Amino acid sequence: MTTKQIVLDSRPKGMPTLANFRFEDYELPDLQAGKVLLKGFYYSVDPYMRGRMSDAKSYVPPLQVGKPIEGSVIARVIESKTDSFTKNDLVMGMLPWSREFIAEGKGLQKIDSLDKHVSYHLGILGMTGLTAYFGLLDIGQPKSAETVVVSGAAGAVGMVVGQIAKIKGCHVIGIAGSEEKIKLLKEEFGFDGAINYKQAVDIKAAIAELCPDGVDIYFDNVGGEISDAVIANINKGARIIICGQISSYNDNKAATGIRPQSALLRKSALMQGFLVSNYISRFPEGVLQLSEWLSAGKLNYRETIIKGFERLPDAFISLFEGGNTGKMLVEIE
Amino acid sequence: MTTKQIVLDSRPKGMPTLANFRFEDYELPDLQAGKVLLKGFYYSVDPYMRGRMSDAKSYVPPLQVGKPIEGSVIARVIESKTDSFTKNDLVMGMLPWSREFIAEGKGLQKIDSLDKHVSYHLGILGMTGLTAYFGLLDIGQPKSAETVVVSGAAGAVGMVVGQIAKIKGCHVIGIAGSEEKIKLLKEEFGFDGAINYKQAVDIKAAIAELCPDGVDIYFDNVGGEISDAVIANINKGARIIICGQISSYNDNKAATGIRPQSALLRKSALMQGFLVSNYISRFPEGVLQLSEWLSAGKLNYRETIIKGFERLPDAFISLFEGGNTGKMLVEIE
Questions:
Q1: Domain shared by A175 and A309, yes or no
Q2: Which of A58, A236, A255 sits opposite B259 (nearest CB)?
Q3: Contacts of B266 in chain A (CB under 8 A)
Q4: How confident is the model at residue A59 (pLDDT cuts 50, 70, 90)?
Q5: DSSP states along B86-120
Q6: Which of A236, A290, A226 is nearest to A258 (CA)?
Q7: Which residue of A has its CA nearest to B223?
Q8: Do A273 and B266 touch (CB under 8 A)?
């Protein structure tokens, strides 16, 4: 059986371009015992994947040039030579960007195929939701009436962070990059205020205005000058959660700018980098709580779903151009 | 009674100079009830005092131009109109740079005048020792066999940090600015290795060489490019304690350079600013433990004592030129 896969043709220098990806035909081998033949359904595109396209050491090993891109994928079982899966089961795992592919049965997680919202397992009930949940609650330790600022607020993680902070009784301000996103944050996600960093003349002043009591928690998906502006407004004992630094993922060298150490010192503040994988043993707790909040209507959720396997590289690149509202996925019919 | 005091004549722009200080005669008023007349004995000079000479908001209110400099001082009671103190008692407090002065009885702490090492209460048994103790143990949480790097290692705080880390079974590397200090760290304070940042061609490589297992804890008194070099060597789960940023205290604007956020993210590392005053309620615990270690010969201690009231401004300025080894004090006979 011949299928199509997307390989890393070359490592991006700076911003990724379509030229870094190559579509190629691929002949699937015979299915061996212990393996399943899968057909892709939903493919997750996430900013962290940019890191794996470089050969710099990071928290996940780099992708190999000439090998398929890998990411979180939900797929349907076409044929199984395992005891764990049968035809038509839905499974999720770290899988290749290929229309069809063979995978080891172990390492796949079964998803209820009657689930109304299968794709949620790649987002609010998966990595991005859990990232928001553990980052905000475990590191941020939000207390009622505290002020929380979220950068990348209309992204997959940010919009969940803001809503959990509201559930915890906080004053929540989001930072995002379009008027449409600002409107969404305030009207659908219940943020108390939001700043369009592309239009604000003085982001620091805008934050000061919307956070009259200062900033107690900053959930940072972005980094760079947006972070400088937030950090200039932190309170004593502030907690800064470093979840992402999308502003610098495409830089060829270390990002430079204002060093935050002096502000941390003056304010006895904490800055903590984290990976959701640090919390694997607590994932069930997080999924349960997020599901309950979703069912109870306390969490809204938004996806940007792009259709068509061939649009995967495009969708990934658009993450760095603010092209997504909420979680971005590519769906294959 | 006329005495001499040192007032802030002007706020330093950048590095403080003698011109920022003015000696002036001062007529002491009559002693009122509840007050004591004191004669200064030991005056502490500390890097944090630079912050109070600016009018920027910081963790302690700024000093006023035309008013005496204030710092930690040990003084002898000449006359008391309180029930708490009598003539010849030794007391410690936040007091003016004046030869003689009047102070409220409350706010003064009595010191045993038979103590062999009275001056230690301004250092290893006072703020700098407690800063080392709580910063390293409470934030750093050192575990046996972990690697600890200390910048400003031959300073009042750094040399205590390194020795406590040794007591806790860590591999300890110090960074300091002279061959004499490097020798001292290794020979008197038991550091496993030390780097002279003024002579190292590549500090990052020097740290990598002396810390073959990476850096688990970085106790930072300095900031700037020395910190960049240490942070480039941190391990997953590293703890970075921001105790001081002496490299930037004399800057007129926010220090710029490599942003540490990406490294914190890649390594799930923590960076925490702190002030010893956050731990006031636990000071007795700290003083007791430090005293025990001193008595048991597990802690060595070093002071740089300058003699003469008129040399106070000089002594203070020299802190920023690496002029001190260990705790710097000015003693008045």
A1: no
A2: A255
A3: 57-59, 273
A4: low
A5: -TT-EEEEEEESBSEEEEESTT-EEE-TT-TTGGG
A6: A226
A7: A261
A8: yes
Task: Write down the pLDDT at residue B137.
Answer: 98
For residue A88, the domain's CATH number is: 3.90.180.10
Per-residue pLDDT reduced to its tens digit, A226-260:
999 999 999 999 999 999 998 888 887 889 999 99
Give contacts of B252 with chain A, Cβ < 8 Å. Answer: none
What's the per-residue H, E or C state across chain A? Answer: CEEEEEEECCCCCCCCCHHHEEEEEEECCCCCCCEEEEEEEEEECCCCHHHHHCCCCCCCCCCCCCCECEEEEEEEEEEECCCCCCCCCEEEEEEECECEEEEECCCCEEECCCCCCHHHHHCCCCHHHHHHHHHHHHHHCCCCCCEEEEECCCECCHHHHHHHHHHCCCEEEEEECCHHHHHHHHHCCCCCEEEECCCCCCHHHHHHHHCCCCEEEEEECCCHHHHHHHHCCEEEEEEEEECCCHHHCCCCCCCEEECCHHHHHHCCCEEEECCHHHHHHHHHHHHHHHHHHHHCCCCCCCEEEEECHHHHHHHHHHHHHCCCCEEEEEECC
Q: What is the DSSP letter of B135?
A: I
Give the chain B residue whose CA is nearest to the CA of A56. B266
Q: Are residues A168 and A118 in the same domain?
A: no
Residue in B227, B255, B265 closest to A273 by CB: B265
Interface test with B, best of A230, A261, A275 (most B CBs within 10 A): A261
Q: Do A262 and B255 touch (CB under 8 A)?
A: yes
Is there a single domain that holds both residue A240 and residue A323? no
Report the length, in residues, of chain A: 333
- CATH code assigned at B211: 3.40.50.720
Which residues are A93's β-sheet partners?
A73
With CA atoms as reference, report the closest residue to A12 among A189, A210, A250, A174.
A250
| Best CA proximity match to A18, nearest among A27, A29, A6, A32 | A6
Instruction: Give the ipTM.
Output: 0.90
User: Among B58, B257, B265, whose Cβ lies nearest the Cβ of A242?
Assistant: B265
B247 and B258 share one domain: yes
Cβ <8 Å between A273 and B259: no
Residue A118 lies inside a defined structural domain of this protein = yes
Q: Which domain holds residue B308?
A: 2-124+302-331
pLDDT band at A57 (very low <50, low <70, confident <90, very high): low
Nearest-CB residue to A245 (from B223, B245, B262): B262
Q: What's the rounded Cα separation, in Å, for the pair A218 and A162? A: 11
Does A84 reside within a domain? yes
Q: Is the pLDDT of residue A322 over 90?
A: no
pLDDT (0 to 100) of residue A154: 94
* Statement to judge: residues B133 and B171 lie in one domain: yes
**Residue B294 within a domain:** no
What average pLDDT does chain B have?
95
Same domain, B232 and B170: yes
Answer whether A227 sits within 8 Å of B274, measured CB to CB.
Answer: no
Provide the domain count of chain A: 2
Q: Do B260 and A260 touch (CB under 8 A)?
A: yes
